[in-house]
Amino acid sequence: MPKLHKTSAQWQAELTPDEFRICREGGTERAFTGKYWNCHQKGVYLCRCCATPLFDSVTKFESGSGWPSFYQPVDGLVIAEHKDMSHGMVRIEITCQHCDAHLGHVFTDGPKPTGLRYCVNSASLTLQESK
Question: Where residue 85 sits, what CATH number does that domain have?
């Protein structure tokens, strides 16, 4: 799938100010405030910017972090990882492989079977509910 490229002005026209700050500028929403941190609906979580399927609700778990957390993406090719040394920490930032939207970070303190915790901003996601 080819990369999706849009100008900053195009993204600003499509996203709310918070979504733009988080998805396009690498921001973070406050813990326990996002739409999906405590969501238990079944479905697939899509990238808010390009609608690429990212996470299935069956991989979502309660991490206690205040952000939606998943132990694996729907496919290993939909998430890109980047070294993030901001805020005096060394972390792995995750972005959408298709449109480069900032999603959050991945940590190695998740549950089995992967041991990973994909900690994602709700503003970076849209839930496509299953019936």
Answer: 2.170.150.20
Residue 30 lies in a domain: yes
Distance CA 6, CA 54 (A): 20
What's this model's pTM, rounded to 2 decimal places? 0.94
User: What is the tally of structural domains in the chain?
Assistant: 1
Q: Which residue range is the domain that position 29 belongs to?
A: 8-129
Under 8 Å between Cβ of 103 and 16: no
The answer to whether residue 3 is domain-embedded is no
Q: Above 90 in pLDDT, residue 85? A: no
Q: Each residue of 46-84: pLDDT tens digit?
A: 999 999 999 999 999 999 999 999 999 999 899 999 987
**Residues labelled as active-site residues:** 119
Instruction: In whole angstroms, give the CA distance from residue 9 to residue 15.
Output: 10
- Residue 114: per-residue pLDDT: 96
- What's the CA gap between 89 and 127, in Å, rounded? 30
Rounded (5°) CA angle 24-25-30 = 105
